Amino acid sequence: MKIQELAKKTGLTAYTIRFYEKEGLFDSRHVRRDENNYRNYTDEAIERLKLIKKFQGVGCSLSELKETLQDVDTNTRTNEQVIEWICQKISEIERKREEYNQMLDTLNLMLEYRMALKNDPKKAQSLLRGQHSD
User: Fold this and answer.
1) How would residue 132 be classed by pLDDT, with cut points 50, 70 and 90?
2) How far apart are CA 72 and CA 115, in angstroms?
3) Pairwise CA distance, residues 35 & 62, whole Å
4) What is the CATH number of domain 3-61?
5) Which letter, b or e, does each residue of 74-88 get, where b requires 16 or more Cβ atoms within 10 Å of its Cβ?
6) pTM, entire model
7) Nearest-5° angle of CA 103, CA 109, CA 110?
8) Predicted confidence (pLDDT) per residue in 53-73, tens digit
9) Calpha distance 67→96 (Å, rounded)
10) CA 84/CA 10 separation, integer angstroms
11) pLDDT at 90
12) SS3 95
């Protein structure tokens, strides 16, 4: 299939697919060149792109993605190594969740202050002093 059809089937842009190919995330199972030198993508390319999207969805960097796909292709990592990697990703995501929770807390306080400033200036002043009077 041509790149536009692959893009349509996967929800990715042709630019993104070419980038992945350039980065070495595809091999001859996924893309071949026709006699006219056009790329011809296989059905396996669809599965590969779904896998790429799945790993990006858990926060994999490009280098992690390359490593992971290489392991998928060659099965070089032991089960213990894969478990360790998964645990590291879980820890990383939990740290990010904490950071996002702190950002949300700050934004909610800022919103509460601004709403109070608009509707109840005395409450806004007490919020500034850290005294929540409800």
Assistant:
1) low
2) 52
3) 31
4) 1.10.1660.10
5) eeebeeeeeeebeee
6) 0.71
7) 90
8) 999 989 899 999 998 898 888
9) 22
10) 30
11) 94
12) helix
